[in-house]
Amino acid sequence: MDTDLIQHGKDIAERILINNGDELGILGSSQAYRQVWARDSMIAGLGLELCPDDEGRAIHRRSLETLRQFQSALGKIPHNVGYTNINDPALVALGGHLGTEANGRRIVTDTTHAGCVDSNLWYILGHYYHFVLGRDLDYLRRVWPSLEKTLLWLRYQDSNECGLLEVHEAMDWADLFSNRYNVLYDNVLYFAVWKAMGHLAAALGLPADNYAHTAEDIRRKINILLWVGPEEPKDWGWVRRERQEWLYPLHRVETELVVRPFYLPYMGFREYADRFDTLGNLLAILFGVADSRKANLILDYIHGTGLNEPYPVRALYPVIQPGDRDWRDYFRVRNLNLPHHYHNGGAWPFIGGFYVAALVQAGRLEEARCQLSRLARMNQQGIRQEWEFNEWFHGQSGRPMGFAGQSWSAAMYLYAVDAVERGQIRAFAMEDGWGLA
To answer: How far apart are CA 377 and CA 387, in angstroms?
Structure first.
């Protein structure tokens, strides 16, 4: 492990995060995304709370407050919140800014991807992380009604009441991608949300058993629906009695795939996708949807396919090609989702941070140290200068292609460093009731 390089990167990552702080909270990056994005800001909070002074925690608190201020009457957390009259190269489709004002500026919410489900999911997890690291019960009591309303909105996204979320296409972090219906990534987060709410309810002295029971039900159903192989024997009698709509796609994957060493990215109406969604599978390890056997199969698969090369880690395997069933013409927007680009097999440093954390959670510490060094070298790369903490990298060349100064790239690097140094992950460790069975 290259200790000096890792420490140097840590110092720069802390500066980037603090400098990306704003009166509204943490902005997406220093170059673009000049708003408080719900998912980005909550993931950035995983690193902000580890900064050596109180400013990082204060910035994360401001993000939480901004999102809560603009929560809808039905409980929806906004996709992002920002100011008008701010030029932003990431907002090409909106004319380069969220809006214009004749005089001055005002705060507005962006409705480009207003239906994104993971805004609500990460909002709850951001509060959980903030509480675990600070134990501020007064603040938790104050925001608890907002968290309950957030969870209620999520429950209504389970349109058939199967216990899992049904997600529209392109309505989560992969917001230009064709995952849909019972999506792995969103439902792993849904499991984590119910588990986190149980911990928070217990801290407030409120009944918590229902949260824990619901989390376990979600975990069980994810494994029934999205894992293919002998590690998860199917209770066909239960499926016939309780979830008949699952019979057709489950029989298909049992016959056509037989076995896969990873969770499928989604299951739709009588259809499925047969590819590896890296972030969804890593979060399944991190939060404990996967048991130890499945976790090791997933991590071995990443190594075997070379998804951690040239840098950790690529988002998808295999990539979707034009003509494939899940290809969409909108993948061409801004040249983003061509094969080996962006969501379609690009490499993302923030996912690399989750990769290191998942290795630590699985007890593969030596491998985690090795991948942390490689993640440091990834973040060191830049288009114009060293240590850009770029947004994403080409999946084959390993060269940076996104915007520099990315908050969640810096934050997840800090989270990964902390996990390796401590030998366990912060807030979601087994000693806190998380992790692998």
So the answer is: 9
Q: How far apart are CA 57 and CA 18, in angstroms?
A: 10
- Number of structural domains (the chain) is 1
Residue 125 above 90 pLDDT? yes
Would 376 be classed as within a structural domain? yes
d(CA 128, CA 195): 10
Residue 23's pLDDT is 96
Q: Which amino acid is at 146?
A: S
Q: Is 101 helix (H, G, I), strand (E, B) or coil?
A: coil
Q: What CATH number should be reported for the domain holding residue 312?
A: 1.50.10.10
Say yes or no to pLDDT of 235 above 80.
yes
What is residue 147's predicted lDDT score, i.e. its pLDDT? 98
From CA 426, how far away is CA 422, in angstroms rounded?
9
In a domain, 118, yes or no: yes
Q: What is the pLDDT of residue 437?
A: 67
Q: Give the residue-averaged pLDDT of 429-434.
A: 86
Is pTM beyond 0.85 here? yes
**Mean pLDDT across the stretch 7-25?**
98
Q: Which domain holds residue 298?
A: 3-432
Alpha-carbon distance values, 286 to 265, 290, 359 (Å)? 17, 8, 9
26-43 burial, b at 16+ Cβ within 10 Å, e below that, comes to bbbbbbbbbbbbbbbbbb
Residue 437 in domain: no
Q: Is 422 within the bounds of a domain?
A: yes
Side-chain half-sphere CA neighbours of 137 within 13 A: 6
